Amino acid sequence: MQRAKRLDKIPPYLFAEIGRKIAKARAEGKDVISLGIGDPDQPTPDPVIGELIRAIRDPEDANRHRYGGDVPVREFPIAVAEWYQKRFGVELDPGKEVLALMGSKDGIAHIPWAFIDPGDIALVPQPGYPVYNVGTLFAGGESHFMPLYQQNGYQPDFDAIPAKVAASAKLMWLCYPNNPTTAVAHLEFFRRAVEFARKHDILICHDSPYSENTFDGYQSPSLLQVEGAKDVTIELNSLSKPYNMTGWRIAYAVGNAEALSALNLVKENTDSGILRAIQFAGVKALREQDTFVQQMNAIYQRRRDLVVDTLNGLGWNIEKPRATFYVWAPVPDGYANSGSFASELLDKSGVVVTPGRGYGEAGEGYFRISLTYPDERLREAMQRIADALR
Ligand SMILES: *Cc1c(COP(=O)(O)O)cnc(C)c1O
């Protein structure tokens, strides 16, 4: 058997060593607490589950078992457009400017197939979600990494992008509120991004799954609020993170109609759409679950305070993030790198954190803690970290 060379392009999996350690510790009967993965611990809201069950059993809907791509739920793009209008004041044509996705990851992985030919460049923030880069490599393109530095508010410096790179770039990935750094962006930054994209004829893909996971009254803007942004932008958002629906696989892209139609052409030849009952449930979430999101945010905010206050009590100096459900912190002095810190912490405390290096070289020197773990487990983990590092 001969594997495609394409697979050799995937960067080595940096969590492999930690994964082995976790398995070994667990095999020895140790109680390992992983704070590594960003996947909500709380259940999907009950009315959304109820809507799924209603729709999958609905005898009136003769299409309920059919390909969701061939017989899409008309209300889903309408509910997305209404939500954008209400939340951001952005007008969208549900027929042309909204495209349902089987999770944002579906969009992120397939967008390069629509816009990147071999040799083309995608501008990719680093540290960042690994699929921006891997999707580009699969399509035969190359990533030009835009490092995100703390001193720049974890925003890329467009002036640092070489002219030749800008000229052959077709796509630019952005992500705010940012995973993993938790940084937020203001409209002024988005304006500069749009200006840059116009100048170099680049499509901006703004991946914004944490737009609703915000704290202390902060409201995250949409990049489409920038005047003229729709000419050069699509924005991805997902039901996964605000409504605890990661396993359901429902998300959407909105914005430039031509770009969405190109993406749809790839998707029509890749998948066959989302089960109708899931689309109905998505409508329910978008239309009726604002209060639920607020309740979730209160939970994450409390956990955020616990984690940041504990670390700051141990000598860190971390600002409380205003969004996402992560805490991003520098590796303390005395450790060679983020991998050895995570590994030693696991040995000393049985707690797993994510080494920043896993999000690319520019993530080195940091680690990430996810807040998607039950309060008691998180409290226990922070107590163990305090005991191990004090
Ligand atoms: C979770 C996450 C995604 C994937 O979300 P799905 O909609 O569940 O596929 C995409 N981008 C970032 C930055 C994420 O953190």
Quick rundown:
The protein is of the alpha/beta class and 390 residues long.
Level-2 CATH architecture of the largest domain: 3-Layer(aba) Sandwich
Structural class assignment: alpha/beta
Number of domains: 2
Largest sheet: 7 strands, mixed
Shape: globular
Order of helices and strands: HEHHEHEHEHEHEEEHHHEHEEEH
Ends distance? 52 Å
Bound molecules: pyridoxal-5'-phosphate
The beta-strand count equals: 12
- CATH homologous superfamily descriptor of the largest domain: Type I PLP-dependent aspartate aminotransferase-like (Major domain)
Walkthrough of the structure:
Helix 7 (187-200) links the parallel strand 5 (169-174) and strand 6 (203-207). With 390 residues, this protein is of the alpha/beta class. It has helices spanning 16-27, 46-57, 75-88, 104-115, 130-138, 163-168, 187-200, 257-268, 276-288, 290-313, 338-349, 375-389, and strands spanning 33-34, 98-101, 121-126, 142-147, 169-174, 203-207, 233-238, 251-255, 326-330, 351-352, 354-355, 366-370. Helix 1 runs parallel beside helix 11. It is globular, with a radius of gyration of 21 Å. The chain folds into two domains: 5-43 and 291-389, Aspartate Aminotransferase, domain 1 (Alpha-Beta Complex), CATH 3.90.1150.10; 46-288, Aspartate Aminotransferase, domain 2 (3-Layer(aba) Sandwich). The chain binds pyridoxal-5'-phosphate. Residues 38, 103-105, 129, 175, 179, 207, 209, 238, 240, 246, 251 line the site of pyridoxal-5'-phosphate.
